[in-house]
């Protein structure tokens, strides 16, 4: 079973958040899934997009114990593809045939990886993840944030990436 997966969503793949996430993932040897590169339609009550990339992705996510959500702070909130992904998790609560799989999120550990132009992520940004994890029965495993007001600077920011990766490594069996 893969131990961890990173769900990444930014308006640019190789920007600040991408560089930060890639440094963490490189240390852990885990996959980074670019949500924006997949075809995932916004949530709709009629669930009329069940044939898009969301359900196959969720099955890969459900196979992991540790799930990293990586997004820049855009207007105090997550990027659009991340919001769409989070909204679509609702499918696994709404649809009776997906509910049993949705319940498998319980007990998994969620993490937040983010960048902004301040020294800390906005409280509401972090709280949205905390509250969502709690609602889904997931543990909040931690947050890694770096101030990228001057862009992602490896000399300045790599240490935070490596420290965060080690936190996860300690929680994963050999
Ligand atoms: C549309 C947009 C909105 C942003 N809103 C915020 C914000 O509310 N707070 C903040 O600290 N930085 C904000 N920023 C700055 C980004 O969080 C920061 O530059 C981040 O490192 C960008 O990551 P990226 O290269 O992955 O896009 C915003 C940037 C953009 C493009």
List the keywords.
alpha/beta, globular, binds flavin mononucleotide
Structure characterization notes:
This protein is an alpha/beta fold and 174 residues long. It has a single domain (4-169), classed as Flavodoxin domain (Rossmann fold, 3-Layer(aba) Sandwich). The chain is 43% helix and 19% strand. It contains seven helices and five strands; from the N terminus they run βαβαβαααβαβα. A five-stranded parallel beta sheet has the order 2-1-3-4-5, with helices on both faces. β1 (4-8), α1 and β2 (31-34) form a beta-alpha-beta unit. α1 (16-28) packs across α7. The longest helix is centred in the C-terminal third of the chain and has 18 residues, at 154-171. The two termini are 12 Å apart. The structure holds flavin mononucleotide. Flavin mononucleotide binds at residues 10-12, 15-18, 72-76, 115-118, 148.
Overall number of structural domains:
1
Distance from N terminus to C terminus (CA atoms, Å) equals 12 Å
CATH topology: Rossmann fold
Which structural category fits the helices and strands? alpha/beta
Q: Rg to the nearest angstrom?
A: 15 Å
Fraction in helix = 40-55%
CATH superfamily: Flavodoxin domain
Order of strands in the sheet with the most strands? 2-1-3-4-5
Task: List the secondary-structure elements in sequence, H or E.
Answer: EHEHEHHHEHEH
Counting DSSP E segments of at least 2 residues, the number of strands comes to: 5
Mean pLDDT: 97
Total helical segments: 7
């Amino acid at each position: 079973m893969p131990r961890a997966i990173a769900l990444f969503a930014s308006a640019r793949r190789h920007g600040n958040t991408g560089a930060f996430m890639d440094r963490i993932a490189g240390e852990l040897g885990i996959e980074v899934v670019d949500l924006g590169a997949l075809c995932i339609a916004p949530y709709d009550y009629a669930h009329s997009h069940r044939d898009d990339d969301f359900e196959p992705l969720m099955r890969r996510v459900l196979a992991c114990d540790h799930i990293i959500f990586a997004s820049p702070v855009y207007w105090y909130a997550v990027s659009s593809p991340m919001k769409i992904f989070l909204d679509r998790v609702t499918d696994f609560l709404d649809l009776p045939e997906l509910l049993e799989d949705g319940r498998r999120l319980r007990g998994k550990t969620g993490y937040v990886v983010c960048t902004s132009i301040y020294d800390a992520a906005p409280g509401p940004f972090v709280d949205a993840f905390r509250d969502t994890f709690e609602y889904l029965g997931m543990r909040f495993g931690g947050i890694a944030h770096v101030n990228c007001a001057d862009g992602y600077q490896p000399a300045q920011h790599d240490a935070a990436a490596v420290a965060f990766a080690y936190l996860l490594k300690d929680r994963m069996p050999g």
